[in-house]
Specification:
Layout (H helix, E strand, L loop, with lengths): L5 E6 L2 E6 L10 H14 L7 E6 L23 H4 L1 H21 L5 E5 L2 E3 L1 H7 L3 E5 L3 E3 L13 H9 L1 H10 L2 E3 H7 L4 E3 L4 H12 L4 H14 L4 H15 L3 H11 L10
Parallel strand pairs: 2-3, 3-4, 4-6, 5-7, 6-9
Antiparallel strand pairs: 1-2, 7-8
Helix pairs in contact: 1-3, 5-6, 9-10
């Protein structure tokens, strides 16, 4: 796969996708969002992929959305913008940005955001759509939309209440202030904060450990947790029972039991 707005690398079962517009602090343009969707869809069925890492180039995660006219996707409708700016934004939000967030959040394997520098607006919500968020101590987050006279996008109105509750979500969205990595962690938006000088090594170690976990089980666990947000307890228990029954028949489950009995680390193969 060839991209111009993201960088893509795969090694030892870990795919790293880097938002790559450093001159704009990796602002999320429509073309970048489209390439992110393409990259994720291209590896959904790749059994060698255990974990996806999403980060930004040159010390910043993503400074927000950028509807730059020179960075539109190839299939953008040029007739919409001059005739109706609102129609053009609606098309981009639903078709381009919406697809990227839906694909990211629904990706079947764990997705980890590595956040350095700024994660603002659409960039913050891009991180929050991931399964885990590891942040450098100096990272900053903001739902900056209200300061630009616009509303939440890229899933913020759905993600924030589920992650931190309605009251805290309103506070962040109403004021649009930047918060520190520690504040984001205390609120429940960030999984772990690492000192700047050890950020790379500490996060890499954690991600490498995640890549050793049983991939089929991880997919089932992620799906179950996501679905539980919309279900009652009885329905969640039924889903757990079905998942458990299916997983106990896998080679990975047998390997997990052997490893436990032999007092060693399991070697999962994803089947």
């Amino acid at each position: 796969m060839e991209f111009s707005r993201i960088a893509f690398a795969k090694k030892d079962g870990i795919v790293q996708i880097t938002l790559n517009r450093p001159d704009r602090r990796n602002a999320l343009s429509p073309r970048m969002a489209e390439e992110l969707t393409q990259a994720l869809r291209g590896i959904e069925g790749d059994r060698e992929v255990r974990v996806v890492v999403l980060r930004g180039a040159d010390g910043h995660f993503c400074s927000g959305g950028d509807l730059a006219p020179d960075d539109m996707p190839e299939d953008a409708n040029p007739d919409l913008a001059p005739a109706s700016p609102a129609a053009a934004v609606l098309d981009l939000m639903n078709r381009i940005y919406g697809d990227a967030i839906r694909t990211l959040h629904g990706f079947p394997k764990p997705v980890v955001a590595l956040v350095e520098g700024v994660a603002a607006g659409a960039g913050a919500n891009l991180a929050f759509a991931c399964d885990l968020v590891y942040a450098a101590q100096s990272a900053r987050f903001s739902e900056i939309f209200v300061k630009r006279g616009i509303s939440l996008d890229c899933g913020g109105s759905w993600l924030l209440p589920r992650l931190i509750g309605l009251q805290k979500a309103k506070e962040l969205a109403f004021f649009g202030d930047f918060i520190s990595a520690d504040e984001a962690h205390n609120a429940g938006l960030v999984t772990q904060v690492y000192e700047d000088d050890s950020f790379e090594s500490s996060a890499a170690e954690r991600i490498a450990t995640l890549a050793t976990r049983a991939p089929v089980a991880l997919t089932q666990i992620k799906q179950s947790l996501h679905r539980s947000m919309e279900l009652g307890l009885s329905e969640a228990l039924e889903i757990e029972a079905v998942s458990q029954a299916a997983l106990t028949a896998t080679e990975d489950a047998a390997e997990g039991m052997r490893a436990f009995m032999e007092k060693r680390e399991p070697r999962f193969l994803g089947r």
